[in-house]
Design goal:
The protein has 2 domains: about 90 residues, no CATH class; about 210 residues, no CATH class. The chain is about 65% helix and about 5% strand. It contains 9 helices and 2 strands; from the N terminus they run ααααβααααβα. It has a two-stranded antiparallel sheet with strand order 1-2. It is globular. It is mostly helical.
Length: about 300
């Protein structure tokens, strides 16, 4: 009984007691992530639902317009970011550079450049072989929503990197084998993106999962190289925002509504069906190439 009580105390995410057992330590970090993230969702959902009533909507009945609901979700992640930073400083009592938040913000630009090049290596071949059709510039773009999505995707990308590569990876690699810490981080990020992935069949779902694992591993390598999350955030941000609001293709099953370019996915298989190019075999090839290049040229600090 005493042993059970001791394990429970060691698992307490609000305790700074040193945990020697690596398995218990890993479970404690995972439990911390789940509790803080769930708490942030509850708070954010409450604010969104309450705010929707002020504007005559009922968010619980999906009455809010698609773009507004999606943007509310993105901006709600500010609460998640705030709670993770607060938890790190006030509960864990550690400096923010221990979770990948240092002052070397210039790596953010490098991440954006890598992300843009990766997207071009995917989109250009698809355009050349006719898998994607380009119909020109969208003259009906809503620039207010464009700007809101710009910052919204920045918040969303930063939040995911803060959790998966910042808090989770950085805290785990302190105490458990490096490869295991990376593996847990990669799987944690990937599992959270499985929604809608198998809507177009098993093969597309398998390709999508493979790509998620590859890009998550790439984000982890970039984070470990820079010793911060800004590079991975830059890549993550430009990938999401460019696909959704510039190129105009589906993103992780989200249907495009407001983009600069008018494009149409003609070859459904090569463009990942309704899930988007993240379930494309072309993306698999490009991500493997980029990952091999990164592995060769990135020396882990």
């Amino acid at each position: 009984m005493n042993k059970v009580l001791s394990i429970i105390k060691d698992l307490n995410p609000f305790s700074n007691k040193k945990v020697d057992n690596k398995i218990i330590y890993t479970l404690k970090i995972l439990l911390s992530v789940f509790i803080v993230y769930f708490a942030s969702l509850v708070v954010a959902e409450g604010i969104i639902i309450g705010g929707s009533y002020l504007f005559g909507y009922n968010a619980t009945d999906k009455q809010m317009p698609y773009d507004i609901m999606l943007l509310c979700t993105f901006y709600g992640y500010l609460i998640t970011i705030f709670l993770f930073i607060l938890f790190t400083k006030k509960i864990n009592k550690i400096e923010l550079n221990k979770i990948g938040l240092d002052k070397n913000i210039k790596t953010f630009i490098k991440g954006i450049i890598i992300g843009i090049l990766s997207l071009l290596l995917i989109i250009i071949p698809l355009l050349m072989i006719g898998a994607i059709k380009f119909y020109g510039i969208n003259n009906n773009i809503n620039w207010l929503f464009f700007a809101l999505y710009l910052f919204g995707y920045l918040i969303q990308s930063f939040m995911e990197e803060l959790i998966c590569r910042g808090y989770l990876l950085h805290r785990l690699k302190e105490r458990i084998p490096f490869v295991l810490a990376v593996t847990i981080s990669v799987l944690f990020f990937s599992i959270g993106h499985f929604d809608k992935m198998f809507d177009n069949g098993i093969l597309i779902g398998i390709i999508g999962i493979t790509n998620l694992l590859l890009i998550s591993l790439l984000f982890a390598l970039i984070t470990l190289k820079n010793n911060n999350i800004y590079g991975a955030t830059g890549f993550h941000f430009v990938w999401n925002f460019a696909l959704f609001n510039i190129i105009g293709l589906n993103l992780s099953g989200l249907e495009i509504t407001n983009s600069i370019f008018n494009m149409e996915a003609v070859n459904k298989f090569l463009t990942g069906y309704s899930y988007g190019i993240e379930s494309s075999i072309i993306s698999t090839i490009v991500l493997i190439i980029v990952l091999l290049y990164a592995k060769k040229n990135i020396s882990i600090k």
